[in-house]
Queue: 2 jobs
Job 1
Amino acid sequence: MNNYTEILRQHNLKATPQRLEITNALYTSGHISIENLYDVMLKKFNSISLATIYKNINLMLEASFIQEVKIPNEKSVYELTKETHSHIICDSCGEIRDIELNLDSVISNAAQSSNYNIKKSALILSGTCKNCQ
Amino acid sequence: MNNYTEILRQHNLKATPQRLEITNALYTSGHISIENLYDVMLKKFNSISLATIYKNINLMLEASFIQEVKIPNEKSVYELTKETHSHIICDSCGEIRDIELNLDSVISNAAQSSNYNIKKSALILSGTCKNCQ
DNA sequence: CTCTGTGCAAAGCGTTTGCAAACGA
DNA sequence: TCGTTTGCAAACGCTTTGCACAGAG
């Protein structure tokens, strides 16, 4: 019994080999697109179907086990759900990194000026990473 | 000669009636999806094609005349390009509002901890607007 | 054993392309 | 007039669905 079996079950998802491998790919990559996930999965399951990928991604999204990250001008990637965090993308090499930023004061300013009761935030920064500079 | 004729030409876009109306719809709505834009356009041009909408949206994006706003769990909307700003969305009525927030300190923190040279930011907040509370 | 998941093929849907006619400058 | 844009129809690519078989619990 693999590491991820229990965590899948906690989200009411049966621990099939395909799902364990999707989970592993998400964990290992941090963020992965459908296309890249399919490539990774093909290495372990030579006859896996894209339909299986999509069905599982959708079930995992519904279960809030994973989340979609929509990046400006890029295709979406998926990540395992964790504490709220921001993302930073390198416009040269495409690296996507999680970054913990304190948005409290920004959010309280926003709440004040908009009169919204703010519940969520999604911040995506982009620029050039150390290596690409 | 309409208000928007000159601004379209400045972006190397001929001022066709369809483009003037797309511009007007963007201006009036603030943010609009392809689907809603098509509905609006149909009222003025009863035989307009979706292909025309897409071609123009893509040309306008290339010309940086408009920008796409990717919203978590929602379909994308488009807006006329203006100074950098954030967005706040009501999770009840769907209202999308521009909001000017100072992200300088957040960005400098991010730059410091990531070693990225940060060029752009996209912040989307969501919650409940005054009316829906 | 039962119910769910998988893989395949087909269908669906939003978006793009090719082309002839219409139009802007 | 000349090059661009429009509208239509067909093509495309990504995603979803239906179904029979395989597999998890």
Job 2
Amino acid sequence: MAPNEIISPADKMALRAKQADIPASGESKTAGRKRFEPEMREHVIKAATRAIEAKGLEGLKARPIAQRAGISVGSIYNLFGDLDELTRVINGRTYDALYEIERSALEQAREAGKTSREQMMDLAAAYLDFVETHQAIWLACLAFNRNQTDLPPQWYLDKEQALFRIIEDAIATFPGAQELEARQNNARALWASIHGIVTVAVADGFLMQPIANVWTQIQIIVNAVAGSLEGE
Amino acid sequence: MAPNEIISPADKMALRAKQADIPASGESKTAGRKRFEPEMREHVIKAATRAIEAKGLEGLKARPIAQRAGISVGSIYNLFGDLDELTRVINGRTYDALYEIERSALEQAREAGKTSREQMMDLAAAYLDFVETHQAIWLACLAFNRNQTDLPPQWYLDKEQALFRIIEDAIATFPGAQELEARQNNARALWASIHGIVTVAVADGFLMQPIANVWTQIQIIVNAVAGSLEGE
DNA sequence: CAGATAAATGAACATTGTTCAAGTAAAAAA
DNA sequence: TTTTTTACTTGAACAATGTTCATTTATCTG
């Protein structure tokens, strides 16, 4: 029910039992229900998310998802139009979850009176931690975006944009670099760099190098950019 | 015939005509040839490359490729085992081509007596130019790697590794950072950052921002890292 | 209760990757 | 030359998958 899903590590087990029962009950004399959309959508999203976590984006198949959610294949298409849309909804929640984490990381850093450099460091750490914790679901975002041939819908782009704006906010607090365009380029450069470091590290779905090295590389970039912005 | 393929912008037209004729000739009374493998492989690779360029990695379908190459579907599997292997061969050539470009960019920069910072700038520029010029084929590399669930073969990893080592070479010439591990982390951090900037820019197969901005962002990072390494 | 409505169903279709028994041209053997 | 063997090509057939839609069914409305 919360806007960010991402497993919600606590209630996971409780929900799992509940979900597993729903499809098993009865002999499927269940055609023609009404007004069940909201709950059903959630069931499908949960089942699809679990599939992605277990077997990557390739693991998201219409028929198994339908079975796990206790509905028919056709209903998935009633609810989402097609599998791409279902994936987009899941990815959107992933973006939301990451957004909340980054927002609160920045907020906490500021309340703790940290420097701009430290704020950026905390943002990067939060990102690395997120990707490490939700590797499959995050790789699904990237893989999906790569495979699309036309532009995604606006609401999807907006969620991606929102992530950049957090970094812009953090960068805005630096003494130098005040003009809007420079600030945007600095924010994009820094965010894309951290993103690049993290995704090269988890390329092919595996950690290709020790996490400590990844963190070192992030520090190199953040320190370099911070030092450059501080004009020192 | 050259080890790097990538369209070879010159002979393109000549080859195109030649290729188009080969399948069209005769009434396909061509079962049971012998010792034709090498040429056939090239035909298939060319046809597949063109398909990727035109319609992305999704555009690589067995049947159309077979038809364009003038052979049957089965022969593709005789030659490559499966489509993934065909893709890997194409991507391998892409890596080779980029490697050559980067190597010669570095060499030229050194011969021109450029500073370490300028050398890195030239490497980054060469990379950006390559991706801009061969967008589809490069995105195919990234998309393919993302979709794989198990580790690629060693020869494939080696080609990827080779690209990092060029940056390591460039970074090795900086006055500071001499220890091997620090140098490797610096190289990886910088290369992954540039990679991140470029790929975020071409995300979803489109240039999401003006190329000038992308270049500005690269300069921000290279200058920041260079400044940091120069200890200034 | 009867009709209208909204939604769920799952068989059927289209598209793909992949396999493999059968066929065929070239080389080798006779 | 004729026959046998070899090596490769072929394309029909299969399995897995995304997607559609006529039919069925539950619920709502009067």
